Amino acid sequence: MTRAPAPQPGILEIDLYQGGASKVEGVDDIVKLSSNENPHGPPQSAQDAARAAAERMHLYPPTDHAALRAAIAAVHDLDPDRIVCGVGSDEIIHLLCQAYAGPGDEVLHTEHGFAMYAISARAAGATPVKVPERDRRVAVDTLLDGMTEATRLVFIANPANPTGTMIGGQDMVRLADGLPDGCLLVLDGAYADYVADFDGGLGLAQGRENVIVTRTFSKMYGLGGMRVGWGYVPRDVAGVLNRIRGPFNLSNVALAAAEAAIRDRAFADRCRADNAAQRARLRAGLAELGIPSDPSEANFVLARFADQNEAADCDAFLRTRGVIVRHPSGYGFPDCLRITVGDAAGVDRLLETVAAWRAR
Ligand SMILES: *Cc1c(COP(=O)(O)O)cnc(C)c1O
């Protein structure tokens, strides 16, 4: 008798990642505010570049991502040799866990932290360790207290998802200063593009051997479906990640779209400004309906309801009207809804529908 193959330890303990819903049965006119996508769509510049690159889809893409890394380096004033590009920043998170954490090692994240940190830790056989936040904000003290000799990686998103809150530059330095030997701090900057005059920790990473920043094209750059992200890592780490990533992990089309998108500074500036304006309208409108939220630095708002039932009830009502938001129960917020900031029409529709729910 043969034995069925068993996966590596830890893999079957992974809770499957839940993506934001995008459909409601029987409703055609949908506004999707569940995955923090750009309501303005992809930049025209990226669409044109992707179309042109489609003519090269019979050719293997470059393995070194040189053109995209040069564009990123130019925009953010970085060393291109320290940039590693991945299939979304999810792949960078995954590669970091695979390379630096294994059985017996700990991967630290916070209470309401992004699901991929624990998923990637478990996939590598490591143990994810969760520490408390304070008032829906990453707490540097609890992270420092949670660090042990077994800690290999510390992940925080700044701004954080699903809270939208962030920690300041001094707190990032305090975290970096407190790292045990052989441990890497990963500052996930998926939403850093939305914060004016904020580098997401790239400056800190520039001068440290143990600080990494990850960034993505999925949010403000409007390329979630293209799957492109990158990490700014120490030189040695780049050498490690480039050894284990797929040599052809990014397609010609994805590379071309991302390069055009990051060079399109007018698009970025427009999206950042519009997001800030619509986010303010969204928060104020919700507050008028008796639904508070913390000031958000990202492209979503975490709306707090009286209790779990009220949040679930509002979520269900919105859905019947074709408005899809996220009920982040899995992130420890059963009494909240995370609502992506839409364009002006999307925010209007969300607020009108929540008002109708209140009035019913
Ligand atoms: C959306 C998001 C990402 C981006 O993931 P990609 O794989 O780049 O699409 C990373 N971290 C957080 C916290 C996010 O919310």
Question: How many structural domains?
Answer: 2
Elements, N to C (H/E): EHHEHEHEHEHEHEEHHHEHEEH
Shape: globular
Low-confidence residue ranges: none
At CATH level 2, the architecture of the largest domain is 3-Layer(aba) Sandwich
How much β-strand is present in the residues?
Answer: 5-15%
Care to count the β-strands? 11
Report on the biggest sheet.
7 strands, mixed
Instruction: Specify the CATH homologous superfamily of the largest domain.
Output: Type I PLP-dependent aspartate aminotransferase-like (Major domain)
Radius of gyration: 21 Å
Bound molecules: pyridoxal-5'-phosphate
**Average pLDDT score:** 97
Structural class by secondary-structure content: alpha/beta
Q: Strand sequence of the main sheet, in spatial order?
A: 2-8-7-6-5-3-4
Helix tally equals 12
Fraction of residues in helix: 25-40%
User: Within the CATH hierarchy, at the fold level, what is the topology of the largest domain?
Assistant: Aspartate Aminotransferase, domain 2
CATH class of the largest domain: Alpha Beta
How far from one another are the termini? 63 Å
List strands and helices in order, with pairings.
Layout: E1 31-32, H1 44-53, H2 66-76, E2 83-86, H3 88-100, E3 106-110, H4 115-123, E4 127-131, H5 140-146, E5 151-157, H6 169-177, E6 184-188, H7 202-206, E7 211-216, E8 229-232, H8 235-244, H9 252-263, H10 265-288, E9 300-304, H11 308-320, E10 323-324, E11 336-340, H12 344-359
Parallel strand pairs: 1-10, 3-4, 3-5, 5-6, 6-7
Antiparallel strand pairs: 2-8, 7-8, 9-11
Helix pairs in contact: 1-9, 2-9, 3-4, 10-12
